[in-house]
Design a protein that fits this description.
The complex is a heterodimer of chains A (227) and B (408). Chain A has 227 residues and is an alpha/beta fold. Chain A has seven helices and ten strands. In chain A, the strands form two sheets. In chain A, strands 6-7-8-3-9-10 form a six-stranded mixed β-sheet, sandwiched between helices. Chain A has a four-stranded antiparallel β-sheet with strand order 2-1-4-5, with helices on one face. In chain A, helix 3 packs across helix 4, helix 4 packs across helix 5 and helix 5 packs parallel to helix 6. The relative contact order of chain A is 0.20. Chain B is α+β, with helices and mostly antiparallel strands and 408 residues long. Chain B has two domains: 196 residues, no CATH class; 184 residues, no CATH class. In chain B, strand 2 and strand 3 form a beta hairpin. In chain B, helix 1 crosses helix 13. The chains are: A alpha/beta (227), B alpha+beta (408). The structure holds adenosine-5'-triphosphate and magnesium ion. The site of magnesium ion has 3 residues of chain A, from helix 1. The site of adenosine-5'-triphosphate (ATP) has 12 residues of chain A, from strand 2 and helix 1.
């Protein structure tokens, strides 16, 4: 079953001034449970594609369907709710709310979803264990290493039980052991809980772990390889 | 969670938050103190007027109020006095005869109100007897003693024991004059009042007004003090019922300026509050705008992961309100302490008293405040914080997550 389908997605930045064609007709199907890396040279449109799939930005042309729903029909406010319910985000940086502890950060999205206290507590514990940070529940982000922060971000992204998780260069700021550790966690969650991951990266070690690699060049899919 | 988030957010920049908290607290303090000063001044003015002459309630023949003519006297002063004494709540009363007159010395002449009083009765109603600065309080049993003010004595260039001449119309509409000897000088501190009033003993004045020797009964005015200031209206009503032919007035009706002054003070307090809060609006806008702008990425992330605009908007408003919530008790406490202190100890304004005296003000101001000003101030802070946070909050929700996350 496809969780994401893009059809002829184009994105032109600055259409009035100096137009930049960041995406030039992207047709992509992502199936449930896939572990997909979007790769390509800098400026090839990886971030743009992830933003559009994640409902953070709108395509200039083409359609994006998530779980059969055309998200271009949603208003800005509906998109916020849509993201809350269906998408987990892991950004390159600034993922966590600095004034909240690690466990509060994970709990936050569930609070936005009005989940009950028991459900939240159980899920926070489960996820903090899954990312190996049950000892760091009450630490603020500033007290955690970059790798630990990204693991909390992964836990946070999963807390809402999203349809899929988007991660734009999640390891860009991490050293190699933290990178390996984060990838282990993501791969395990993908395998054990069948969570769909889509992440962009430049890092060959990360690319090697992916089970599907989509290569973008100049806003178009150049290769799409399943392993 | 959002309240917790808002609360922790305001302590991310403790110095900046404390500065705005102190500004709001000082604003509340200043508004309360100014209000305390204004109300204290008003009360002192009103009390001075009440104590010096007006008393709480006055009774006249209605026509006398339109035209100060001798003939509009209380028909039977003795009976009126008896009726008044029978009304519950009346503490003291003074029956006066009143006439406008020309007062003249060899150096000048002026128009004044002459009040004929029984000194012992008047002592119970007004503080005139305490305001004697020279001589005595009409204690001389000899004929035609007069008590004039320091101001008037200076204007007329007369001293103690000087003779001055009073000229007025008597009951038969004839002009009569008589010489009086200055046996006392008073100073109430209220220049306009002092310049316009002189006091003689009632029998002396009545004899001249009627041409008869034993006419202690003639009177135009009854000045009354009540036991409980809150019961003025009730006592006045009862007096009016007991004396339907006469006009009973509270001090507010006797001196409409006092009533005006009282109501104005309430608006003045409000105006102080509004002006100060207006100034604070800009401080809060500035603080909250900084708080939003330095958190652009984070706000973008919050909206990306599903925090909707209403919640973001509410969070920013709440942060501003929480700043106010911290500041308000501090400001109220400072204000309360200041007002209580000056209420008990007074603020010596004698450095400015010559100008104050011209307006009938006391030299020492005792702060006072209508307790409702406290909650008005709290409410205003709340509203101010809300209003001031609207613009920064709008800025926050206008952020687009992609751009916010991309921005450096
Ligand atoms: N907001 C924007 N306004 C104008 N042009 C933009 C904007 N965002 C991206 N672009 C341009 O669109 C193209 C694709 O950018 P994008 O960020 O998607 O690339 P990327 O593959 O993520 O690159 P990188 O590997 O460096 O992160 C680039 O040429 C970029 O300069
Ligand atoms: Mg990118």
């Amino acid at each position: 079953m496809n969780v994401i389908t893009t059809k002829g997605v184009e994105k032109i930045y600055n259409p009035d001034k100096i137009p930049v064609k960041a995406l030039n007709g992207v047709d992509l199907d992502i199936e449930e449970g896939e572990f997909t890396a979007i790769v390509g040279p800098s400026g090839s449109g990886k971030t743009t594609l992830l933003n559009i799939i994640g409902g953070l930005d709108r395509p200039t042309a083409g359609a994006v369907e998530v779980g059969g729903q055309d998200i271009s029909e949603l208003s800005d406010n509906q998109l916020i709710d849509f993201r809350k319910e269906h998408i987990g985000f892991v950004f390159q940086a600034y993922n966590l709310i600095p004034v909240l502890t690690a466990s509060e950060n994970v709990e936050f999205v569930m609070l936005l979803q009005n989940q009950s206290k028991e459900k939240r507590d159980a899920r926070v514990k489960e996820l903090m264990e899954a990312v190996g940070l049950e000892e760091k529940m009450d630490k603020r982000p500033s007290e955690l290493s970059g790798g630990q922060q990204q693991r909390v971000a992964v836990a946070r992204a999963l807390a809402s039980k999203p349809t899929f998780v988007l991660a734009d260069e999640p390891t860009a700021n991490l050293d190699s052991s933290s990178t390996a550790n984060l990838l282990d966690i993501m791969a395990r969650l993908n395998k054990e809980e069948n969570i769909t991951f889509i992440f962009s990266t430049h890092d060959q070690r990360v690319i090697d772990r992916a089970r599907r690699v989509v290569t973008l060049v100049d806003g178009q899919i150049a290769t799409d390889e399943r392993r | 969670m959002i309240p917790i988030l808002a609360w922790r957010n305001i302590w991310r920049s403790p110095t900046r938050s404390l500065v705005v908290i102190m500004a709001v607290a000082l604003g509340i303090w200043a508004a309360l103190s100014l209000s305390g000063f204004a109300t204290g001044m008003m009360k002192s003015y009103v009390n001075n007027a009440i104590e010096n002459s007006v008393a709480h309630i006055q009774i006249h023949q209605a026509e006398f109020l339109d035209e100060y003519k001798v003939e509009f006297h209380l028909a039977d002063a003795g009976k009126v006095e008896q009726e008044v004494r029978n009304v519950e709540g009346v503490k003291a009363l003074s029956v006066r005869s009143v006439s406008s007159a020309m007062i003249a010395s060899s150096k000048g002449a002026r128009g004044v109100m002459v009040k004929g009083i029984i000194p012992e009765d008047e002592r119970m109603v007004s503080t005139l007897s305490e305001k004697i600065v020279e001589g005595d309080y009409l204690s001389n049993k000899g004929k035609n003693s007069i008590l004039i003010s320091r101001e008037l004595a200076d204007k007329l260039q007369v001293k103690m024991r000087s003779k001055i001449v009073l000229t007025f119309q008597n009951l038969d509409n004839e002009i009569t004059s008589a010489a009086f000897r200055v046996t006392g000088v008073f100073d109430t501190g209220n220049t306009p009042y002092d310049q316009g009033h002189v006091f003689v003993r009632r029998p002396d004045l009545n004899r001249l007004l009627t041409g008869e020797v034993t006419t202690a009964e003639l009177a135009h005015e009854v000045a009354i003090l009540v036991n409980d200031i809150e019961s003025i209206e009730a006592v006045a009503k009862e007096l009016q019922e007991a004396l339907p032919a006469l006009k009973v007035q509270t001090y507010r009706e006797v001196s409409p300026d006092l009533e005006l002054y009282e109501t104005q003070m309430q608006s003045v307090s409000m105006i102080y509050l509004v002006v100060i809060m207006l100034a604070l609006v800009f401080g809060i806008i500035n603080t909250m705008l900084m708080a939003v702008l330095e958190r652009v990425k984070e706000l973008g992330m919050l909206m990306a992961i599903g925090m909707n605009k209403l919640k973001v908007f509410g969070m920013i408003l709440l942060e501003a309100v929480l700043l106010g919530v911290v500041a308000t008790p501090i400001g109220l406490l400072l204000g309360y302490a200041t007002i209580t202190y000056v209420k008990n100890n007074g603020l010596d304004m004698s450095a400015y008293s010559s100008s104050l005296k011209n307006y009938g003000m006391a030299e020492i101001i005792y702060f006072d405040i209508d307790p409702s000003v406290y909650w008005q101030a709290s409410l205003m802070v709340f509203i101010t914080a809300l209003i001031a946070a609207i613009y920064p909050a709008l800025k926050a929700i206008r952020l687009r997550p992609v751009e916010a996350l991309r921005s450096l």
